[in-house]
Amino acid sequence: MNPEIRNEQGERIDCAFSPVHREAKEILVIGHGVTGNKDRPWAETLSRVLSAAGMPCLRISFSGNGDSEGRFEDSTISKEVGDLRAVLDALPDRQITYAGHSMGAAVGVLSAARDSRIRKLISLAGMVHTADFAMRKFGDQEAGNSTMWDKADCPLSRVYMDDMARIRSVLDHGSEITVPWLLLHGTADTVVPLSDATDMIQAARPQAELRVLPQVDHVFSESAELMASHVADWILPRLSS
């Protein structure tokens, strides 16, 4: 399985499927953060570990990122919610667990609060306070005339900044998540602070669990295997027999 997936704008969503050697109803969909793509080392590690344990995985690049179609300038949380909806539409016979990293975790919160097809949710270094993030990281730059983190192929757009400000925070949606939910966050994260996760776990329902990883950074640079082992430890006992 490697379905052709197109969003509401008709843009192709690049994806990579990691199968397993058995019949499996459940699938882990993996979404990245801002300026990321499906081939980030942490995403490849997570997919490898989970598929080896018996859970198929589908890594996606949101539109405008990686090899997906679309313009990076149009990449926003709101648009990526639509991208994820298109992915779920392409998996009608699967039970979906969604794992989102950073901004992709905010996409997951908004999606799981509205879409019952997401049966389990995983937030990896999850962004919660979107307006605060945008102002901390890009507030001193001119949208439309600057780039994100000096990446030439990642222009900072007004539509991105406006969307982050409009959403402001996904904290209020935490109490709307009724499915099992794992939050993983490192204490050495300088991109999205650990306080985002601790704020969210206080707003979430009792079935949510926060695991704090000491000395782990935002992209799990030296800790991708550790992150993946925590995800496997949490999700494998919850798989359908």
Describe this structure in words.
This protein has 241 residues and is α/β, with parallel strands linked by helices. It has a single domain, classed as Alpha/Beta hydrolase fold, catalytic domain (Rossmann fold). The protein is 32% helix and 18% strand. It is built from 7 helices and 9 strands, in the order E-E-E-E-H-E-H-E-H-E-H-H-E-H-E-H. Strands 3-5-4-6-7-8-9 form a 7-stranded mixed β-sheet, sandwiched between helices. The protein is globular and about 50 Å long.
Task: Lay out the secondary structure.
Blueprint: E1 5-6, E2 12-13, E3 15-18, E4 26-31, H1 41-52, E5 57-60, H2 77-89, E6 95-101, H3 103-114, E7 118-124, H4 130-138, H5 158-167, E8 181-186, H6 194-203, E9 208-213, H7 224-235
Parallel strand pairs: 4-5, 4-6, 6-7, 7-8, 8-9
Antiparallel strand pairs: 1-2, 3-5
Helix pairs in contact: 1-7, 2-3, 4-5
Please outline what is shown here:
The chain is built from 7 helices and 9 strands; from the N terminus they run ββββαβαβαβααβαβα. It has 241 residues and is α/β, with parallel strands linked by helices.
